[in-house]
Amino acid sequence: MAAPAARRMFRRAGILLLTLAAGALVVFFAMKAAPGDPALSALGENARPELVAAFRRTHNLDQPVVAQFVAWITGAVRGDFGRSLTLAGGVPVGQLIAGRLPVTAFIGLYALLIAIGVSLFVGTVAAAQRGRFLDTAMTSLAVLGVSMPDFWLGYVLVFFLALSFPIFPSYGFVSPADSLPGALLSGFLPALAIAAPMAAVFSRVLRAALLEVMHRPYVQVQRSLGHGRAFVFLHSILRNALIPYVTVIGLQVRYLLGGVVVIERVFGIPGLGSLIVDAAFGRDYPVIQACALTFLVIVLLTNLLVDLLCTRLDPRARA
To answer: Where are the strands (E) in 19-165, listed by range?
Structure first.
């Protein structure tokens, strides 16, 4: 069994690398096809032609597009994403990513933990109370949660929990490296704004999966053998219902990253989301490309982890 497992891992790694290469290609040429001139954005529309030409030579913007791509991807493999076109002194992009990524990772994981915790409770209670008042109420709340844009929810949370009732800060963020309680407090509202729509999706998927598994023959057999309700639920019902649940979590990581980009801007959080928005306004192509590539790596690694978890949960996949 070791050899087939090793082949599967090599195949997954190969697919991941090919997807990453294709994504890097799309990201680079999409930026080149975008309107605007990064040299004029950095120097101003009235910059002298000789300064514009010198700027393009310094940042290799005067080279053919294919040569620029080869130079960029070669540097990216070594961890060198070039230098910012707009920030004073041409700060290395890798340094910007390293400084902002922990903040975004904290907000994203915070939101994911909230969404998972809420959805496990809501989905389980709704399935156990199928057709009753609690099921109807929680299902209605889930539909409402899916329909609410995260940025609108962020402003609503600020109005009620930061302005009307000053429980949480409305703007800014305390780094977890400085104070973990401060990070949990200042990051709660943005994390909740991202987590609420995801929790709604997760709870609906979990409810449907639990109801489907509850009526399978092997569950009825275990109950007839005298096993307790808790044992049957944990070992047979929940374990099998988690397979589609975990899969949906992996698919929602793309939404999570998109929500982080918007919410960081709303709450003034110095993460990758606000960095990529500022870079887009300034046409800072190296920063945008590096941020997009970082997001792509996060999505691919998360999908790989979800694949491994589903294989662990489902014995048929291991066989």
So the answer is: none
Residue 145 has pLDDT above 70, yes or no: yes
CA atoms of 234 and 102, how far apart (whole Å): 34
In our burial notation (b when 16+ CB lie closer than 10 A, e otherwise), range 228-267 reads eeeebbeebbbebbbbbbbbbbbebbeebbebbbbbbbbb
Nearest to 316 by CA among 230, 218, 225: 218
- Sheet strands (E) in 140-234: none
> Are 142 and 204 spatial neighbours (Cβ–Cβ below 8 Å)?
yes
Contact 265, 172 (CB under 8 A): no
pTM, full prediction = 0.87
DSSP state of 92: B
| pLDDT, mean over the chain | 86
Percent of the chain at pLDDT > 90 equals 28
d(Cα 238, Cα 185) in Å, to the nearest integer?
32
The strand pairing partners of 83, in sequence order, are: 92
153-169 tens-digit pLDDT: 999 999 999 988 888 99
Least confident of 7-11, 184-188, 225-229, 271-275: 225-229
- The Cα–Cα gap between 271 and 178 comes to 15
Q: Return d(Cα 173, Cα 170) in angstroms, integer.
A: 9
> Looking at the predicted structure, is the pLDDT value of residue 89 above 70?
no
Contacts of 280 (CB under 8 A, 6+ apart): 288
Angstrom distance (rounded) from CA 103 to CA 173:
9
Q: Radius of gyration (Cα) for the chain, nearest Å? A: 24
In DSSP terms, which residues pair with 37 in a beta bridge?
Answer: none
State residue 92 phi and psi, 5-degree precision: -60, 135
Helix pair angle (272-281, 238-267), 10° resolution: 50
CA 195/CA 148 separation, integer angstroms: 11
From residue 114, alpha-carbon distances to 111, 196, 202, 234 in Å are 5, 8, 11, 21
